[in-house]
TrEMBL record:
Subcellular location field: Membrane
Organism: Candidatus Magnetoglobus multicellularis str. Araruama
Domain of life the protein comes from: Bacteria
Protein topology in the membrane: Multi-pass membrane protein
Protein name, per record: Cytochrome c biogenesis protein
Length: 337
């Protein structure tokens, strides 16, 4: 009896709706902290941002990598178990309602309802039976008419299978949680910084860990469009994926429009200034061609960087100076959506 009581207590605990609310609230709260707190930073960063105490606690409890932490996976596992037990616990009662073997109707249940209606008919019971059957059978999906010693009564209902909708919701939640757990174990997310014309075949996870990709990503072009007030409205990169020095396709990527290939999602997260390494590769001498729109004459203008060169036809001077050069900052995520 003691073992049975313990089993019942455990079953009641995991079939509790209060447990579902608690787990959902906890996961939502933790996800908020995981979004607010920068992930994958050094302990020095957390100490300088949150102070010595919390800067030490955050990496200690795994908040620096929230979605891969043991306790976050445990919360998702407990929520999955809670949903499964709740579904099983209520399935048999729901099934008996959707597919009843017999219908039991108590007349007093309807006589005592405040919205009941009573009317007198001049027709006999036999004359009323068929018209009522025909009318109500069109209104209700499940309709039956039963005879009694004093007359007859009708039983009907609609939307019976809609009670299965909650199980469809439960299955969809379990699929999302399963995908999240699989992604937390086998997935990864990191970033790479690629300048225009450059390519790479690895990404950086956390601070220094590098993962080699099964292909090479090359940034062919980058462009930014602006609103009238000067703020960026859209930035786009043209990426080429290569393998064994062979190009297999070229695609543009925009913010919230990633490139997906072999389970790897390539997102464009931001852009920034030209890196010092790329600056060193720029030529010292630049040649630009100017064309007069009226005469259609073209003029080559040759000059060195950081110098002012005269424009054709005495139109002034042009400084050859690299102020900023955009780069694509790409985030690679595998096993997540």
């Amino acid at each position: 009896m003691k073992i049975k009581s313990q089993k019942n207590a455990m079953w009641l605990f995991f079939s509790s709706v209060k447990l579902s609310v608690f787990l959902l609230f906890t996961l939502a709260l933790v996800s908020v902290f995981g979004t607010i707190i920068a992930q994958g930073q050094s302990i020095e960063y957390y100490k300088s941002t949150f102070g010595h105490l919390w800067g030490t606690v955050i990496p200690l409890i795994g908040m620096d990598d929230t979605y891969h932490s043991f306790w976050y996976r445990l919360l998702m596992g407990l929520l999955s178990l809670n949903i499964i037990v709740c579904s099983i616990d209520r399935l048999f009662a729901t099934w008996s309602i959707i597919f009843p073997k017999t219908h039991t109707v108590k007349a007093n249940r309807f006589r005592n309802k405040p919205d009941r209606q009573i009317f007198n008919a001049r027709s006999t019971m036999t004359q009323l039976r068929d018209p009522i059957r025909l009318f109500l059978s069109k209104k209700w999906t499940h309709f039956e008419l039963f005879s009694t010693d004093t007359g007859f009564y009708c039983y009907g209902e609609t939307g019976r299978k809609s009670r299965l909708g909650v199980y469809a919701v439960h299955v969809s939640i379990l699929l999302m949680i399963t995908g999240g757990i699989i992604g937390s174990f086998f997935g990864f997310d990191g970033y790479i910084q690629i300048s225009e014309g450059e390519s790479t075949n690895y990404l950086v996870i956390g601070q220094n860990q590098k993962i080699e990709l099964p292909f090479t990503i090359q940034c062919d072009d980058f462009s930014v469009s602006y609103y009238d007030n000067g703020t960026p409205s859209e930035f786009k990169s043209i990426l080429t994926l290569k393998r064994d020095n062979k190009t297999f396709f070229t695609r543009p990527i925009l913010v919230n429009h990633p490139l997906r290939y072999e389970g790897i999602n390539i997102f464009q997260s931001s852009y920034g200034l030209l890196t010092p390494e790329y600056r060193q590769k720029l030529p010292e001498t630049v040649v630009l061609f100017f064309q007069n729109p009226k005469t259609r004459l073209s003029y080559p203008v040759k000059g060195k960087l950081n110098e002012r060169v005269p424009l054709p036809e005495g139109k002034g001077f042009l400084p050859f100076k690299i102020i900023r050069h955009p780069i694509a900052l790409v985030v690679i995520i595998w096993g997540r959506h």
